Backbone:
């Protein structure tokens, strides 16, 4: 019976594997900086300076940033620009209505975005944010002049572009051509390059004797590698901040959890021995 | 004194006992309620469901103090509980994890009843009240899931309420009446809140009381399915029985702590449980204008949801064919009045299966697969209660049934594909066949002799 159960489960799991493989852009793993206060503070600074102009984090009060090591005075001096108080919620300055008119979509509230973008038994929302903010490329054909690999046709332009520095994107696609009358299916490789200014060049070449699968491969070439590397680190900090913000209690919750489980472990031993002493006379 | 009852107790307790059956109730349900001494691991889950019920009610009371049942504020008020109410995150996680764990323990509790024949005579009412509790629990979970007002809350409610519109003639009006609006809205949220915090819990508590009273009236079953009341000592106490208190109270405390270790580990280290206890998409506020690509109910509904999705137009041919086959079988095997009535009814069902829209039959498959459980005591004709004394291939059938239920549950969480749809259709047939053919298969095979006394190894 157990064997049959296992077989059934194995079947289900293999099917699901095949199912999960289709589609979505592969996400990079976000570095774990959730307990790095300096990183969280840098992330907070970036968040307030760049994101908060259009987005809100309406569940978060500025003074909760004391949890990541800032003082009220520091919050006032470096994060509040337009007369808010430290007890205020992080509200963006663009109304939902204006956002819809200007950008075509209301900028979503970011309070719990790092949780919302997670996928069941898949990459976390942090991975999504970390990848999304690092896969913008210039494309002159788009209204904002930008497009994104992780979120194609994103309404948001690349707000942090000056920090990332210029980059080129090269996309290599290998795909099979449909078989035509009398001719077997052939293969071709398409190499598309978006240069740093967003102009596209495309090159198609047929492949003979290709024995492989269809594939899509994206490569970014940083024209100022140092700037781009610093940007990647900044985005890791910003991601860490947004992850912290989505559940500020997370770190403390895990710390308390250890003590709770230790207590219950001891309690279980007592309950177990108590039970045994009652039942030892039952024949 | 005239009119006063004479009791054995004295002092304050005596004073109370002359006015209220305190001591006699305590004895009848705890200290002199004899439970079989051979309870195994499976018998923890009844007491555990009671523990989770209490946890849900207590945490629910605290959540209601801070939650706002208003489409404008509901989502924000949940985040407010998570961030600004002292300990609010812990209470909310207990409640959200508790919902899933309630179904975990109840499913295991039902599995126990199934394998040891706990629904058999004389425990039919215990079982029926239990299935009633299960239905209430599903309603409670469904209404409660709208309250956080996230995308999955909204669209889940939208999908499920729309199902009612598949009912012929009254459907569209009925679903409108349930929603109180043309789409799920503030009006819906308010009434679901009322159902979740008052109406259903009241019914639930009543049914739980009835379940326990009925159980204590007939006595607990046990893993051997042996009637312990058949063998009594000179004081009239069952030889294989043991007072519930202190023996099972102390035993259940151990079970409670063991359960709490798992429960707290989830709350403190994986409250979302990988997106299965708290769905990630529910961290996006409800938006009537954006339909999520993939709407999946929470895991505990997915086996039934799979059966709903499996019932496509093609599949009603299979079901209609099965009904015709059943009609022929009944006609050939059954004698008396039912020889005509049952086949005619089955043929009528077969015709209706092709006349009425498949969506309606999907709803019937989903609801019917739960309602079917009510009839279990009258479907099982096996001469023994417990699986221990059934033929080996019965055990295989039960194994297939449980594995099938898990597979259906898994399929319900996934986006539909051709192969998955086919699998859920096969799964639905297995589920239905298990119950509908039970009167036939449950009496077949070589049963092992049931002992007079329970099998028990001293601890």
Residues:
């Amino acid at each position: 019976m157990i064997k049959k159960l296992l077989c059934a489960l194995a079947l289900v799991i293999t099917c699901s594997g095949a199912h999960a493989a289709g589609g979505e852009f592969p996400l990079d793993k976000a570095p774990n900086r959730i307990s790095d206060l300096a990183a969280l503070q840098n992330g907070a600074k970036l968040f307030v300076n760049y994101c908060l102009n259009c987005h809100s984090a309406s569940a978060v009060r500025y003074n909760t940033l004391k949890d990541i090591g800032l003082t009220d005075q520091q919050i006032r001096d470096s994060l509040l620009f337009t007369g808010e108080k430290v007890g205020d919620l992080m509200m963006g300055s663009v109304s939902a209505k204006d956002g819809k008119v200007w950008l075509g979509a209301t900028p979503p509230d970011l309070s719990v975005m790092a949780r919302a973008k997670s996928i069941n038994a898949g990459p976390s929302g942090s991975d999504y944010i970390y990848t999304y903010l690092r896969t913008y490329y210039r494309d002159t054909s788009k209204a904002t002049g930008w497009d994104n690999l992780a979120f194609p046709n994103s309404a948001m332009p690349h707000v942090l572009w000056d920090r990332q520095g210029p980059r080129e994107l090269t996309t290599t696609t290998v795909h099979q051509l449909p078989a035509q009358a009398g001719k077997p299916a052939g293969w071709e490789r398409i190499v598309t390059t978006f240069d740093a200014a967003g102009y596209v060049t495309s090159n198609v070449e047929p492949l003979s004797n290709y024995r492989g699968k269809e594939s899509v491969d994206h490569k970014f070439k940083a024209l100022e590698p140092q700037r781009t590397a610093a940007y990647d680190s900044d985005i890791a900090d910003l991601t860490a901040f947004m992850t912290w913000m989505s559940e500020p209690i997370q770190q403390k919750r895990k710390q308390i959890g250890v003590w709770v489980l230790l207590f219950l472990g001891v309690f279980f031993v007592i309950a177990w021995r108590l039970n045994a002493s009652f039942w030892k006379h039952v024949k | 004194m005239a009119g006063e009852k004479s009791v054995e107790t004295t002092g304050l307790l005596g004073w109370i006992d002359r006015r209220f059956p305190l001591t006699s109730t305590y004895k009848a349900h705890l200290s002199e309620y004899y439970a079989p001494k051979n309870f195994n691991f499976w018998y923890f889950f009844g007491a555990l469901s009671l523990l989770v019920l209490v946890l849900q009610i207590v945490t629910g009371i605290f959540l209601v103090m801070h939650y706002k049942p208003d489409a404008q504020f509901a989502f924000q008020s949940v985040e407010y509980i998570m961030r600004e109410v002292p300990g609010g995150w812990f209470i909310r996680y207990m409640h959200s994890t508790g919902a899933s764990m309630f179904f975990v323990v109840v499913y295991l509790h039902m599995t126990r009843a199934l394998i040891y024949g706990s629904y058999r005579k004389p425990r039919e009412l215990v079982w029926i009240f239990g299935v009633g509790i299960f239905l209430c629990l599903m309603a409670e979970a469904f209404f409660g899931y709208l309250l956080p007002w996230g995308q999955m809350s909204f669209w889940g409610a939208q999908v499920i309420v729309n199902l009612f519109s598949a009912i012929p003639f009254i459907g569209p009006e009925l679903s409108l009446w349930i929603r109180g609006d043309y789409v799920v809205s503030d009006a819906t949220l308010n009434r679901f809140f009322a159902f979740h915090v008052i109406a259903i819990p009241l019914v639930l508590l009543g049914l739980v009381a009835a379940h326990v009273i009925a159980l204590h009236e007939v006595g607990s079953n046990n893993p051997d399915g042996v009637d312990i009341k058949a063998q009594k000592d000179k004081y009239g106490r069952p030889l294989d029985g043991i007072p519930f208190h202190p023996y099972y109270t102390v035993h259940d405390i151990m079970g409670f702590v063991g359960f709490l270790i798992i429960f707290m580990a989830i709350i403190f280290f994986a409250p979302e449980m990988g997106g299965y206890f708290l769905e990630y998409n529910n961290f996006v506020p409800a938006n009537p204008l954006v339909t999520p690509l993939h709407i999946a109910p929470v895991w505990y509904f997915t086996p039934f949801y799979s059966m709903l999705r499996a019932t496509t137009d093609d599949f009603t041919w299979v079901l209609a064919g099965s009904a015709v086959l059943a009609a022929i079988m009944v006609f050939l095997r059954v004698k008396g009045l039912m020889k005509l009535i049952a086949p005619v009814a089955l043929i009528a069902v077969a015709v209706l299966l092709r006349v009425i829209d498949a969506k309606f039959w999907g709803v019937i498959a989903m609801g019917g697969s739960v309602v079917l459980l009510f009839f279990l005591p009258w479907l099982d004709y096996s001469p023994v209660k417990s699986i221990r004394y059934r033929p080996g291939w019965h055990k295989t059938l039960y194994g297939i049934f449980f594995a099938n239920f898990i597979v259906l549950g898994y399929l319900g969480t996934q986006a539909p594909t051709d192969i998955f749809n086919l699998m859920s259709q096969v799964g639905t047939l297995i589920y239905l066949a298990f119950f509908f053919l039970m009167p036939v298969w449950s009496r077949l095979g070589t049963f092992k002799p049931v002992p007079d006394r329970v099998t028990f190894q001293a601890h």
